[in-house]
UniProtKB/TrEMBL annotation:
The chain crosses the membrane at residues 30-46, 58-76, 96-129, 136-154, 174-197, 226-246, 258-275, 295-312, 332-362, 374-397, 409-433. InterPro entries: Glcn_transporter (IPR003474). NCBIfam families: gntP. One of its GO terms (molecular function) is gluconate transmembrane transporter activity. This is Gnt-I system high-affinity gluconate transporter. The keyword Lipid biosynthesis does not apply. It comes from Chitinophaga jiangningensis. The keyword Membrane applies. GO terms for cellular component: plasma membrane.
Amino acid sequence: MSFLIVFVCLLLLILLLTWGKLNAFIAFMLVSVLAGLLLGIPPEKIPASLQKGIGDTIGGLLAIIVLGAMLGKLVAESGAARQIANSLMQLFGEKYLQWALLIAGFIIGIPLFYGVGFVLMVPLIFSVVYQYKLPAVYIGLPTLAALSITHGFLPPHPSPAALVTQFHANMGLTLWYGLLVAIPALILAGPVFSRFLRKMPATPNPMFKVAESSSSQVLPGRYNSFFTALLPVILLMVTTACTHILGATPWLTLAGDAPMVMLLCIIVATFTLGLAQGRDMKQLMQIYGDAVKDVAMIVLIIAGAGALKQMLADSGVSNEIAAAMQTWHVPVLVLGWLMAALIRACVGSATIAGLTAAGMIAPLMVQAGTNPNLMVLSIGAGSLMFSHVNDAGFWMFKEYFNLSIKNTLLSWSVMETIVGTAGLAGVLLLNAFI
């Protein structure tokens, strides 16, 4: 009976989000309360479960997400992202423009949230398409694949960061493993797959050419832009490596803590991309305030997913699901990936898919002794699977590149499926050696 209740609750969540067009946080809260009641949690204990689920999930994430949003917003507003893209295009030359934009997308995608990175990179892609008369989808898809991969695989993006907290994984180690998995997946879904799309018709709007050429913003220096954008990755990777070599000393533990890393990065960026570029503190605080508004709903969605996870845990049904899954004789990493992929196909949101799947797979992961860092990546890969008509990214790609639905499915949706499948393969390969 418990399994039927969970299934009905998940189905209701999907219907509220898709058919009902309900706000994701409200949908999660309603379904969490209903799940608690149906699973036998006393009514007077439901508020405490909700508070615990929200608090435990958001407590360790709020600083990471908010400070990460501030950094990404400043990287975009200051022109550092444009400087990175321009520098890479100059370095690689006309022959390798696709690779230049792909690497730019990957670097810019680390500090920027997916939607911001998408809107920022599209004019750069189209300016190259117009200037060199190249096929739009062939040039653009690898760059957008890079943004998708950083969104699904790499902390400090919200979904991977939330999964790291939920599975008690190590942020720095997850980032190391994530890079090992992400790069082959990106090459397959980007340059390799796009070779088959050279002749796909696309007529991007000419307004992007005008927008690009009319930009008169004074850009920050090349090294300044690269250093500031990549600083979170540099610090997390260096502190993790030092911890493995020297052991977990008190100062290394403090320096390697993800919120501390992000706090240091925003302090550095305030000077390098803010005050040093002629902005005053009032302007910078306005940028940071706008960044918080941009991520408020993401924080609430994560909080709502935490509430549902807690209801499943407090009712004991999570352990029942874990026990039942043990009889399936399917590796836990594959099960987590499959759950996230199914929810992604139904709901469309990678963040919701990853967090919902995590709440169900966590007890089984503990029982099976699965590496939590790889579990983060497995679910992240599953949450990127088959983007179609219920995903905002699908429609953004279709409209910006002016494609038919059929060609959007053949390009964007297949690319996302390659990313998710290659990600799982990379995780399983890593698992064989770790």
